[in-house]
Amino acid sequence: MKQVDFSAMVDSGRGLVDRAIFSDPRIYELELERIFARSWLFLAHESQVREPGDYFNTYMGADPILVCRQRDGSLKALLNSCRHRGMKVCRSDFGNARSFMCTYHGWTYSNSGQLTGVPFEKLGYDDRFRREEWGLVEVPRVEVYKGLIFANWDREAPTLREYLGDFAYYMDIMLDRVDGGTEVIGGVQKWRMRGNWKLAAEQFAGDMYHAQTSHLSAAIAEGYREAIGDYHDGIEIDAGGGHGVGAFTGRPIVFGHPAVGAYYEATAAEMVRRIGSDRAVGTQWVHAGMFPNLAWLWDFPTLRIWHPRGPDSIEVWAWCVVERKMPPAVKEIIRLNCQRHFGPSGTWEQDDSENWSYCAGGNGGYIARKYPLNYQMGREPAREYSEFPGRIGSVYSEQNQRALYARWAEMMNAQSWKEISVPGRAKSDHMGNAAAAVAP
Asked: What is the pLDDT of residues 17-52, one digit of tens each?
C-alpha cells in the first residue's frame, strides 16, 4: 500500500481511531510484516514440550511454526513449511518425533530442521542438489520467560526482557507467585470468530468497562453481580510498549470455590516472600494484555492468543494455567472453571465473541469509515498508586487502549527497530519498582 501516516489514523492525543484499521485488507497485510514479523510472540508453555523430541504446532502471525525441544534441552522454532512445495511437514497438534516427513513428496527433516531425506535425489538432481541449503527455515530468536516460550523473526529486535519492560513485573504475579512455577493443563481450546485481532487485544489490555454491560446476565446467574458492579476501586495500568494491566483494589479478593480460596490463603505468605506485599496484598489482579496478541485473566485463569486470520477473522487459542504445586483436586476445579467461562461456549466468552463480531460488521461500511471511533475516556484514580510501575488510570479510562494503538502506529510507521522505542530501555517514572522489574 502507498505510504500512510498511521499516527494520523490513530490520534492518541485526541483519542480518535480510524475505523479502517479494523477492516482494510492492505493494513492487515502490512501488520503481518511490521507487527507480527518483528514483535516477540508467544509460542507455547514449556510444560508442553518437556522432553527431547517433544513438539508443539502453533503460529506466528499467519506463519505455521513448530516448537521443538532438542536433545541438549534447548528449543528451536521452525517454519512448518516444506521447502519443496510449502506443505506443512507436521500436521499433528503436538507429539514427540525425531523427524518430520512431508507427505506430498517425502522430503524429510530432523526435528532441528535439517533436510535429511529426498526421495530419488540422485535421479532427480544428479549432484546439483545441496541438502544443507534446503532445511526448514528457523526462527532466529527464541527466549523463555518463566515458563513461557517466545520467538521473534527480527534479528534487530531488543531482547525479550527489554521488550517486556515493566510488564514483567505484572507477569510475575501469575508466573512466579510460588516455588515451582506454572504449567498448562487440559490441552488447548481453539476456535475461530469474526472480528479484528486488535479488538480482542485492546479489551484484555485495558477494558473492564464493558463487563457491567456485556457480562451482566452471566454475572447475575453465577453470583458475580457485585464483583463486576463496583468499579470505583479499580485501576488500569499502562505498562509501556502497548502492554496493559487491570485490577481491583481495596476490596476482598474473590476466589469462587472454597478449595481454591484455601489454597491461595495457604500460599499467601510464600507469595509475599517471592514478589513482595505490593503485588500480593489488597489487590485483585484481573486482566492483562501483552502487545501484540497475548492475553490472560488471573482469576479464571486463562492464557490466550489472538491469531490474526484476516482483517475480520480471529483464531483464538486458550490455555488453562495452574501452579505446579497445586493439589490435583484444585487444578481440576480451576480447569473446569476456565472452560465453563472462557472456552468457546463459555458463559462470558460468548459475550465477547458476539461483541467483536458485530464490531466487524459495524466498522467496514463506506459511510461508517468516514467517522472515527471515540477512545477519549479518562478519569484519574481515587488515589495515587506509586507502588506500581507504569501509568495509572481508573477503570473509567481508555488510556491503555490509546497506548496500545499508539504503539501499533509507531511500529506500523517504522522501517526497522532502529525507529521503535524499547520499554525496558526507557527510564521509568516508578524507579523503585521498575528497578526490581528489570532485574534478570
From this structure: 999 999 999 999 999 999 999 999 999 999 999 999
Question: Can you read off the three cell numbers belonging to residue 424?
Answer: 525496558
Q: Which three cell numbers stand for residue 103?
A: 507427505
Choice between 354 and 85, residue whose per-residue pLDDT is larger: 85
Question: For residues 248 and 234, is the Cβ–Cβ distance under 8 A?
Answer: yes
Amino acid code (one letter) for 294: L
Q: Residue 4 has what pLDDT?
A: 86
Peptide bond into 423 cis (omega under 30): no
CB atoms inside a 10 Å sphere around CB 163: 24
Measure Cα distances from 124 to 85, 116, 135, 295 in Å. Answer: 16, 16, 18, 48
* DSSP track, 351-405: HHHHHHHHHHHHHSSTTGGGSPEE-------SS--TTSSSEEEESS--HHHHHHH
Strands 313-323 and 234-240: unpaired
Fold of 41-143: Rieske Iron-sulfur Protein (2.102.10)
Tens of pLDDT, residues 381-403: 778 889 999 999 988 899 999 99
What would be the CATH architecture of the domain defined by 6-25+166-438?
Answer: Alpha-Beta Complex (3.90)
Q: Rounded to a whole number, what is the distance in angstroms from the first to the last CA of the chain?
A: 41
- Partnered with residue 314 across adjacent β-strands are 193, 308
C-alpha cell at 189: 481450546
Domain segments of the chain as ranges? 6-25+166-438, 41-143
**Dist. CA 378–CA 212, nearest whole Å:** 18
Q: SS3 of 111, please?
A: coil
Q: How sure is the predictor about 435, in pLDDT bands with cuts at 50, 70 and 90?
A: very low
Apex 71 CA angle, 69 and 76, nearest 5: 35
- Residue 312 phi/psi, 5-degree rounding, is -130, 30
Buried-state track 10-39, b at ≥16 Cβ within 10 A, e below 16:
bbbeebbbbbbbbbbeebbeebeebbbbbb
Q: What is the pTM of this model?
A: 0.92
